[in-house]
Amino acid sequence: MLGMPGKSHSGPLPPLTPAEATLRDDLRRDVEELAGRIGERNVPKYAALAEAADFLEASLARPGHRVARQSFPVAGRRCDNLEVQVTGAGRADEVVVVGGHYDSVLGCPGANDNGTGAAAVLALARAFAGRAAPRTLRLVEFVNEEPGYFQTEEMGSLVYARRCRAKGEKVVAMLSLETIGYYTDAPGSQSYPFPLNLLYPSVGNFIAFVGNVWCADSVREMVGSFRRHTRFPSEGAAPPAFLPGVGWSDHWSFWQCGYPGVMVTDTAPFRYPHYHTEQDTPDQVDYERTARVVAGLERVVAELTGLSPAEGA
C-alpha cells in the first residue's frame, strides 16, 4: 500500500495556465449539460440516459473522431458504450483504455458521480484527436456502472472488457475516471476504511490512484508519471481488493478479464458529502482543481501511450 514513487505536491498550487483555464470552462460546460440540463440518467430514466449518450457521441465526434457504439439490451432497452480510438503506430496491438461511466444512480443528477469522469473523457478525446502514439488509445464512455447493474452481466464496462478478451486484445493499462471533482482543505475531511486511515492524509485535497495488489505496478507507474509532471497532491494505493471502495468502479470489470485496471478518484463516499444524493449537482464540483487533475492525466496518458509528457501538455 506504500512505496509510491516521487512525492505528493504540497503547498500552494501554481496559477492555472491558459490551457487549464480553458479546460476548466470546458469541464464546467459538459458537467452542467449532463447533470444540470439532462439530469438523472439511468435505465429507469431511459430518455435521459439516451439523451446523454447522444450528447456524448456528438461531443466525441466533434474533434474528428469516429465514434463506435457497443449496444446491448437491458430490460428491453438498448444501452450503449461509446468508444473512440486513436490507433497506434509501432505498437498498435498494445491498448491503453481510459473510461468513465455516464449513468447516474437513482434519484441523483450525478454531477461529480460521474459527470466529472464522463466530461474528463471528452476532454482527453479533444486533447488526443489526430495525435497517434506508439500504442493505441481508446477513450470510452461506459453505461450502467451504478446499482443495480454494478458488478452484473449488464454493467457496461464488463460487457466491454469481455469483448476485448474475446477478441484477444492486449490491454496494457486501463484508467477508470470516477468522481474526480471534489476537493477540500478542511481538517479531517478525508476518511478511509481501516487500515488505510492509518496510512494516508486526513485532508481531502488530493487525487487518488487505486488498484488491487495485482495492479500495484500500474498504480506506481501512473502515480510516478503524475507526480513528475503535475503540481497537485496525489496518493496511490494497491491494497487487497476486498477492502471497501477498492473495486467500486469500472476498473473492476477489467480485473475480471485479466487486465490491469486503476481507478482515478477523489475517493467518492470517503470524502464527498453529496455522494449518491440529490445534492450531487454541478455547483458542488471544484472545476479549477478538476482541470488541474485532468491536465495531469493527459500527461499520464501521453506517457502510457508512448508520447513524451510535453506531447500530452
List keywords for this structure.
313 residues, alpha/beta, Aminopeptidase, 8-stranded mixed beta sheet, 18% strand, globular
Counting DSSP H or I runs of 4 or more residues, the number of helices is 7
Distance between the ends = 29 Å
Query: Helices and strands, in N-to-C order?
Result: HHEEEHEHEEHEHEH
The tally of beta strands, per DSSP, is 8
Blueprint (SSEs and pairs):
Blueprint: H1 18-38, H2 46-61, E1 68-74, E2 77-86, E3 91-101, H3 111-128, E4 135-142, H4 156-166, E5 170-178, E6 207-210, H5 216-229, E7 234-237, H6 251-256, E8 262-265, H7 287-305
Parallel strand pairs: 3-4, 3-5, 5-8, 6-7
Antiparallel strand pairs: 1-2, 2-4, 6-8
Structure description:
The chain is of the alpha/beta class and 313 residues long. The protein has a single domain (18-307), classed as 3-Layer(aba) Sandwich (Aminopeptidase), CATH 3.40.630. Helices cover 34% and strands 18% of the residues. The chain has seven helices and eight strands; from the N terminus they run ααβββαβαββαβαβα. The protein has helices spanning 18-38, 46-61, 111-128, 156-166, 216-229, 251-256, 287-305, and strands spanning 68-74, 77-86, 91-101, 135-142, 170-178, 207-210, 234-237, 262-265. Strands 1-2-4-3-5-8-6-7 form an eight-stranded mixed β-sheet, with helices on both faces. The longest helix has 21 residues, at 18-38. It starts with 17 loop residues before the first helix and ends in an 8-residue tail after the last helix. The mean pLDDT is 96.
